[in-house]
Design goal:
This protein has about 140 residues and is an alpha+beta fold. The protein has 2 helices and 9 strands, in the order E-E-E-H-E-E-E-H-E-E-E. The chain has one domain: Glutaredoxin (3-Layer(aba) Sandwich), CATH 3.40.30.10.
Length: about 140
């Protein structure tokens, strides 16, 4: 089972009426556009495409995130809910770079569109105590 994830916020760009979400959200449209090519992607068994509810970046929707133990976590916003096939491939190309890099580093110059811009956060690796409780090291 893979520990690499592409999280897609399914509540991004929702329409609300009387306190209830109505219709298909932008995040759901984004997820569907990625799902079309996901099954044909060479890393579909290594990287899980997973819908999540609300990543709290509502003013920068639509949002996706790359995460894995022992790696930096990246949160991207301002992504169109209706990606072109080239842009969908760009997301998967970026996810592949993330998967390959030991620390999950994604330098700006190496990021394909549509993830060249819209970075909301690069969260460092979480350190955990080793068995003796004194030293810290990243989860690997």
């Amino acid at each position: 089972m893979s520990v690499h994830k592409i999280f897609v916020c399914t509540t991004c760009a929702s329409k609300w009426e009387n306190g209830k979400r109505v219709g298909e959200s932008g995040g759901e449209k984004l997820l569907k556009s990625l799902q079309v090519d996901y099954s044909q992607w060479q890393l579909n068994r290594e990287v899980v495409l997973e819908p999540v509810q609300c990543m709290s970046a509502c003013n920068r929707s639509c949002v996706i995130c790359f995460a894995a133990p022992g790696k930096n976590t990246y949160l991207f916003g301002d992504i169109s809910p209706e990606l072109t096939p080239t842009e969908v491939q760009g997301v998967f190309d970026c996810a592949e770079k993330y998967y390959i890099h030991p620390e999950g580093s994604l330098p700006w110059s190496e990021r394909p569109e549509p993830l060249k811009k819209g970075i909301l956060a690069r969260i460092p690796v979480v350190a955990v105590p080793v068995e003796n409780g004194k030293e810290l090291h990243p989860i690997r």
